[in-house]
Design goal:
By secondary structure, this protein is mainly alpha-helical. The protein has one domain: Cytochrome Bc1 Complex, Chain D, domain 2 (Orthogonal Bundle), CATH 1.10.760. Helix content is 49%, strand content 0%. It is globular. Bound molecules: heme C (HEC). Heme C binds next to helix 2, helix 3 and helix 4. The site of heme C (HEC) has 24 residues, from helix 2, helix 3 and helix 4.
């Protein structure tokens, strides 16, 4: 229980402002290249299913974010893909990265490409 309370306290303390800026990568990450992709190029249905099952609970129905869960819907696809690949690699970026490392570790390159385009376009 102690660790659980500590985690909740950390998340409350670190909310909002810390995520106002983009967390551009200082090192190259092996992320799928999605900058040129549109909704027609990816599997939006597959991404939607993953989003509903594994992302929505924290990031919100429309990826709008809440408290210490960052908003995703206003980000560029390549930014989202880079971040997901970095979390998949186990990189710690913000104070609550452990939550994302858990959620990204089983994503394939295809999942990341699908999710990145989906999140950036489906909620406009
Ligand atoms: C248990 C809650 C939780 C779940 C589930 C979750 N996330 Fe996150 N996500 C977070 C938190 C907290 C952060 C900030 C992490 C940090 O401090 O580094 C984050 C950060 C991110 C970022 C970086 C945002 C930015 O502005 O840099 C992306 C992209 C992201 N999540 C996508 C996803 C996707 C896609 C899924 C589903 C596969 C998902 N998340 C599932 C809590 C969650």
């Amino acid at each position: 229980m102690i660790t659980r309370y500590a985690l909740i306290a950390a998340m409350v303390l670190s909310g909002g402002a810390a995520w106002a800026e983009n967390h551009e990568s200082e090192t190259e990450v092996d992320a799928p290249q999605v900058a040129e992709l549109t909704a027609e190029d990816v599997d939006m249905d597959a991404a939607g299913k993953i989003f509903q099952r594994s992302c929505r609970a924290c990031h919100g129905n429309k990826a709008q974010g809440a408290a210490s869960y960052p908003k995703l819907s206003d980000k560029e696809p390549q930014y989202l893909a880079d971040m997901l690949a970095r979390y998949r690699d186990g990189e710690r970026i913000g104070p609550n990265s452990i939550l994302m490392i858990q959620n990204a570790k089983d994503l394939s390159d295809e999942d990341i490409a699908n999710l990145s385009v989906y999140i950036a376009t489906a909620f406009d």
